């Protein structure tokens, strides 16, 4: 009989497991701390459990993390990891050292993505499946096992997939991440990035978690957004702006808008005006990023001057504007690029 992998089990699930084994529930909380905080996965070393319980656990259970099949290091220090999952599918995480003391890790929430944004390598792969809670936190545990406790300071769910389409698992993962006896990363250091799944944004607002929300906007005119993000048909911009007003009212947090600039597409004065109109009344900041070209896709990267011009026009009309410089361009760090290439290679080899 294969052992049950406890990777991704929450404290409540581990308590339930202990009860099912005829043990006291609090042993489940002890195990939770050993796995996630102390990173000890060998039952024989979990010394505050009885020898008998450790033996029974070792017979039926284990805690198997993810293994990275491929790692790439960019000249700018960005590292990209490709993980092969038990069913043979692949996901990516990217570790981005920023200013001193801040390291952001970008993790995946799905294999592939069903939303099919026209500019995105993951979108080209189509929908695969939701990641389990274990596969989400496993990306982080791998990094801590490799690089130690301070492998990362901030977490963004901005890798492969749309996190709000895998909401329940993402929320369970956030609970493990933010628990003091878990990975112990404050919820406010965790950002969930969505393309704009309106009803789930409302649910998230009502849960009053302290996680931060980013919205991948990329166009502030409905017709343009529809051309690059098909979900805009079901969730139009006007309704998106309304739910974001609701979100900021209820949570008192500002929202981050991610706006990728594509040369000659969404970088005109009309776009500046539409964007400043759209965000009116929404406490927010806007991150501008020049498009990182993806092989086989039609979009082009704007010049640095064009990006700076856009930022200058926008700044007096928006409360906060930041220009983010692309990272890891030499290692295909944009989400899904490496996994998409690996998939093509495997298909060719098959
Ligand atoms: S940009 Fe995000 S939402 Fe759009 S296809 Fe890519 S992963 Fe999915």
Provide an overview of this structure:
The chain is an alpha/beta fold and 350 residues long. The chain folds into two domains: 4-62, DNA polymerase, domain 1 (Orthogonal Bundle); 68-349, Aldolase class I (TIM Barrel, Alpha-Beta Barrel). 37% of the residues lie in helices and 19% in strands. The protein has a ten-stranded mixed β-sheet with strand order 3-4-5-6-9-10-11-12-13-14, with helices on both faces. It has a two-stranded parallel sheet with strand order 1-2. Helix 6 (167-178) links the parallel strand 9 and strand 10 (190-194). Helix 1 (11-20) crosses helix 2 (26-36), helix 5 (133-147) packs parallel to helix 6 (167-178) and helix 7 (198-207) runs parallel beside helix 9 (237-251). It is elongated and about 70 Å long. The structure holds iron/sulfur cluster.
Describe the sheet with the most strands.
10 strands, mixed
Provide the helix percentage.
Answer: 25-40%
How do the strands of the widest beta sheet line up side by side? 3-4-5-6-9-10-11-12-13-14
Kindly identify the CATH topology of the largest domain: TIM Barrel
Tell me, what's the shape?
elongated
| DSSP helical segment count | 12
What is the chain-wise order of helices and strands? EHHHEEEEEEHEHEHEHEHHEHEHEH
| The level-1 CATH class of the largest domain | Alpha Beta
> What would you call the structural class?
alpha/beta
| CATH superfamily (homologous) name of the largest domain | Aldolase class I
- Spans of at least 5 consecutive residues with low confidence: none
Q: Tell me the radius of gyration.
A: 21 Å
């Amino acid at each position: 009989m294969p052992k049950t992998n406890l990777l991704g089990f929450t404290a409540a699930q581990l308590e339930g497991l202990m009860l099912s084994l005829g043990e006291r529930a609090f042993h489940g909380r002890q195990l939770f701390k050993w796995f996630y905080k102390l990173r000890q996965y060998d039952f024989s070393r979990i010394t505050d459990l009885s020898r008998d319980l450790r033996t029974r656990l070792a017979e039926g259970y284990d805690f198997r993390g993810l293994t990275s099949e491929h790692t790439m290091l960019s000249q700018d220090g960005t590292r990209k990891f490709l993980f092969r999952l038990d069913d043979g599918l692949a996901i990516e995480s990217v570790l981005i050292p920023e200013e001193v003391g801040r390291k952001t890790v970008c993790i995946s929430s799905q294999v592939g993505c069903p939303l099919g944004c026209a500019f995105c390598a993951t979108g080209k792969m189509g929908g695969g499946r939701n990641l389990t809670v274990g596969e989400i936190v496993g990306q982080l545990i791998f990094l801590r096992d490799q690089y130690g406790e301070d492998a990362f300071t901030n977490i963004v769910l901005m890798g492969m997939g749309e996190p709000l389409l895998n909401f329940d698992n993402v929320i369970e993962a956030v609970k493990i991440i933010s628990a003091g006896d878990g990975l112990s990363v404050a919820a406010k250091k965790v950002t969930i990035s969505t393309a704009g799944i309106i009803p789930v944004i409302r649910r998230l607002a009502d849960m009053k978690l302290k996680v931060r929300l980013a919205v991948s906007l990329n166009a502030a005119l409905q017709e343009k957004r529809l051309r690059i993000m098909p979900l805009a048909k079901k969730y139009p911009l006007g309704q998106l702006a309304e739910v974001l007003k609701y979100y900021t009212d209820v949570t008192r947090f500002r929202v981050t808008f991610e706006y990728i600039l594509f040369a000659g597409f969404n970088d005109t004065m009309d776009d500046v005006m539409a964007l400043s109109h759209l965000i009116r009344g929404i406490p927010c900041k806007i991150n501008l990023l020049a498009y990182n070209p993806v092989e086989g896709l039609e979009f082009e990267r704007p010049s640095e001057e064009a990006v700076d011009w856009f930022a200058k026009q926008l700044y007096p009309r928006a409360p906060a504007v930041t220009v983010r410089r692309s990272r890891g361009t030499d290692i295909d760090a944009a989400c899904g690029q490496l996994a998409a290439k690996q998939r093509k290679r495997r298909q060719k080899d098959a």
